[in-house]
């Protein structure tokens, strides 16, 4: 069953669990994640970063949507960390049912303007508008400078939008470990959601992207999570909360976050580490060259990690709620 993000997360918040969002970078990984989600009867979000999408190609999205449409579990196809308006438009045209525009590195007002622009396009899906004022953020870089076209979506009449407020650290091995975290302010979150109209908000409460270095112990600010959640509810806003950097965190903290208002948790590094460590092991047998000999053990290793995350987030068996 093909859903957008808003539809998927509304049920998760109401029932106090989080939907796992798994980043995949091949069709084999996609099938593996769908298989384990179906076995666990769990809703799932198939996520691709622009670099992953560039690798797998936009044509594959229609095939993914075709499989999901006949799946017994609800699933969304989500663009992770869209870095530009162009990234988002390409994803909508390809058939993603939800997109993230990550303008969190921009000043607060510019972040709002970019997210608002994306929301207008994504929620319209197949409409268009005129933007004649020179300072209108919807104004396109086109020949006549006046007409900005919304992108046509293949599958969704309304594409959901995720934004980000605050920023998290980076643990990539080719970069210095950046522990500078700009935590999300609850009152800024209220203004941000109200002015942009986003469907989901990625917040910063102490996670980092990637695998934490040995000896580093992350600590999530649960009180801040509750303050953000309560501030949004008090303002009458139903935007769902998202946690990035969900890999390699203590299980107890992740479980608590899912129970206290996080409706979507991103997992990329954990499943990829399992997948490629197993591949390195398999490829020690130099005679192997067929994908159907090499990849099945890798998929199984990835699925073992994905299954643990599905259960940890409280998503196992929740497909029946949709």
Describe this structure in words.
By secondary structure, the protein is α/β, with parallel strands linked by helices. The protein has a single domain, classed as TIM Barrel. It contains eleven helices and twelve strands. It has an eight-stranded parallel beta barrel, surrounded by ten helices. A two-stranded antiparallel sheet has the order 5-6. A two-stranded parallel ribbon has the order 8-10. The radius of gyration is 19 Å and the shape is globular.
Search tags:
eight-stranded parallel barrel; alpha/beta; TIM Barrel; 43% helix; 16% strand; two-stranded antiparallel ribbon; 322 residues
Following the backbone from N to C, one meets helices and strands in this order, namely HEHEHHEHEHEEEEHEEHEHEHH
**Beta-strand content estimate:** 15-25%
Largest sheet: 8 strands, parallel, barrel
- Average of pLDDT: 87
pLDDT < 50 stretches = 126-131, 138-148
Task: Report strand order across the widest sheet.
Answer: 1-2-3-4-7-9-11-12
- Report the total helices: 11
Number of domains: 1
CATH architecture field: Alpha-Beta Barrel
Inertia-based shape: globular
This entry's quaternary arrangement is single chain
| CATH homologous superfamily label | Aldolase class I
Helix and strand composition category: alpha/beta
Rg (CA only): 19 Å
Task: Give me the CATH fold name.
Answer: TIM Barrel
CATH domain class: Alpha Beta
Total beta-strand segments:
12
The residue fraction in helices comes out at 40-55%
Distance between the termini: 9 Å
